């Protein structure tokens, strides 16, 4: 990869992906962009520029000025927020993606665009969802994800833009909080376990969803962008997963380290209905076959690492706030 642009660079994925890309390809070769309010609150090193991806001219100017040839497009509105503000979510998710695709076409950039488990809906089979199957999501977020998959396919077929992407499951990380999704509980539960030894979950105890620890999600994005494209059939929407888990299973795993941890349930009807419209787990064999996808972390390994790293982070933040 030459010069890389990351949009939504200060979100849950972007904050870690930007750092990983800078470590791999050089600090000066990765330009981070996000909305101004996000940049103002960050303490990142390296070039970071404020840009709304709905602003085509500013984005296009940045791509030309820095000679960008690869874009990781992460700017988006996630499922729970999108369901509260569907018109806004459609405008941001589709408007930003359209601008990125047009800029990639004009400037001959390769692009990575994530889709989601949310691209599936109630008509999709619930277990072992195949790579190519019925989608028909019933959430605005999911609708923008399917439309995005199709638009990326179109730009590849029509204009030969090198578009690639994965359907991420819920992502669990300790560095940056998630941005308003249905799977956010799977991050909150670790914070609350360490801080209060108790968590009130907004999803039902047996709600199964695919999940993944952030290091695997970062590896997926970089591996897919590095692989020789001649072996790729499903360019834009590879099913990937690392585990299919429920709130009660995560709680049980946390109790192996924090035995006094308790979980209660106070169901949020909106997020429960979104989760109920998504499958339990995806079949990721196409990603395994086409670009050797292979996650490292299962629930046990992730929980051990998450509790240890998050505990260190919370302690250092507490010391910092006392000083
Ligand atoms: P996030 O909400 O944490 O971050 C998104 C970032 O985009 C934010 O920093 C926000 O400020 C920025 N943004 C929003 N509107 C913008 C605009 N108009 N212009 C520029 N920046 C804007 O989201 P994330 O979790 O990092 O997700 C990144 C991508 O991965 C999204 O496409 C999301 O749908 C997808 N994804 C995420 C998950 C997950 O669990 N985190 C799962 C599946 C798919
Ligand atoms: N984690 C995301 C969400 O819940 C899934 O795409 O919105």
Question: Would you give an account of this structure?
Answer:
With 323 residues, this protein is α/β, with parallel strands linked by helices. It contains twelve helices and 14 strands. The protein has helices at residues 12-25, 36-40, 56-65, 79-84, 86-107, 140-159, 185-196, 214-226, 247-255, 269-276, 285-291, 299-322; strands at residues 4-7, 30-34, 48-50, 70-73, 110-112, 115-116, 163-164, 166-168, 170-172, 198-201, 209-213, 238-239, 243-245, 262-265. Strands 3-2-1-4-5-7 form a six-stranded parallel β-sheet, sandwiched between helices. Strands 6-8-12 form a three-stranded parallel β-sheet. The chain has a three-stranded mixed β-sheet with strand order 9-11-13. Helix 3 runs parallel beside helix 5 (86-107). It starts with a strand and ends with a helix. The mean pLDDT is 96. Bound molecules: nicotinamide-adenine-dinucleotide and serine. Nicotinamide-adenine-dinucleotide (NAD) is lined by residues 7-8, 10-14, 34-35, 38, 52-54, 74-76, 78, 92, 96, 114, 116, 168, 170-171, 178-179, 181, 183.
């Amino acid at each position: 990869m030459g010069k890389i642009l990351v949009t939504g660079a200060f979100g849950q994925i972007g904050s870690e992906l930007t750092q990983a890309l800078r470590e791999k390809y050089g600090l000066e070769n990765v330009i981070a962009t996000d909305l101004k309010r996000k940049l103002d609150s960050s303490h990142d090193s390296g070039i970071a520029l404020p840009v709304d991806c709905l602003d085509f001219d500013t984005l296009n100017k940045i791509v030309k000025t820095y000679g960008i040839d690869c874009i990781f497009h992460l700017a988006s509105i996630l499922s729970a927020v999108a369901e509260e503000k569907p018109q806004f979510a459609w405008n941001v998710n589709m408007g930003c993606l359209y601008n990125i695709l047009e800029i990639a076409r004009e400037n001959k950039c390769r692009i990575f665009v994530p889709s989601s488990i949310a691209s599936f809906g109630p008509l999709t089979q619930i277990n072992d969802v195949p790579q190519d199957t019925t989608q028909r999501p019933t959430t605005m977020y999911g609708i923008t994800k399917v439309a995005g998959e199709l638009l990326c396919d179109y730009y590849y077929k029509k204009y030969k833009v090198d578009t690639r992407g994965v359907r991420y499951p819920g992502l669990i990380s300790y560095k940056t909080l998630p941005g308003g999704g249905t799977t956010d509980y799977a991050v909150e539960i670790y914070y609350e376990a360490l801080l209060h030894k108790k968590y009130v979950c907004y999803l039902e105890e047996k709600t199964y969803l695919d999940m993944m620890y952030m290091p695997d999600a970062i590896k997926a994005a970089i591996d897919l962008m590095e692989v020789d494209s001649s072996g790729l059939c499903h360019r834009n929407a590879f099913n990937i997963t690392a585990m299919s888990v429920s709130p009660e299973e995560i709680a049980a795993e946390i109790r192996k380290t924090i035995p006094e941890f308790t979980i209660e349930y106070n169901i949020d009807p909106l997020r429960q209905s979104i989760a109920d419209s998504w499958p339990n787990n995806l079949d990721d064999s196409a990603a395994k076959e086409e670009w050797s996808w292979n996650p490292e972390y299962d629930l046990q390994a992730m929980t051990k690492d998450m509790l240890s790293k998050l505990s260190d982070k919370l302690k250092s933040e507490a010391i910092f706030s006392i000083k």
